[in-house]
Predict the 3D structure of the following.
Amino acid sequence: MDHRAEQLDALKYFLARFSVSAHLRDDGLAAVSAWLPGHYGVLMPTLPRDKVMQIFFRHLTPWEGTLRGLNAIFDLAVFLGECVIARNPRAHWIELAAVSDEGEAMESASQLGGISQRDGLDPMGEIIYICEDDANDLRDMTPGERVRADRLLGRVRDYAMR
């Protein structure tokens, strides 16, 4: 997580192409959240879910070609984490050993701590699930059914208050 500023800049540049101002203030968060449905699902690779999770969480495969969309998804996850941190002074990035004895990753190693003792937030996992839901909405031709315009905004507000 040493390159968060660069990742946020990459996201801002990407979303500016769609006239979306991605910044950490409330209006920037609302703009990204409103734009998300119907757009981020197309960035998901068309691979089995478990394979996508391992590629995304373990970073073992370069995100090129059909995996290129994972770069923007990762940047969005950093944005989610930074939005929570901007609103919750106790929240901070932590690095965990997130690989099982079998070498599988069920969550990202980069997470937010300081939220509460029982809660933590895996921004990478949260975003990959949102994007997967959006991909399913697009496949089912029901945009906005699983991923509403306020979903990202709601997740930030939820974790900012813990």
About this structure: The chain has a mean pLDDT of 86. Strands lie at 92-95, 110-113.
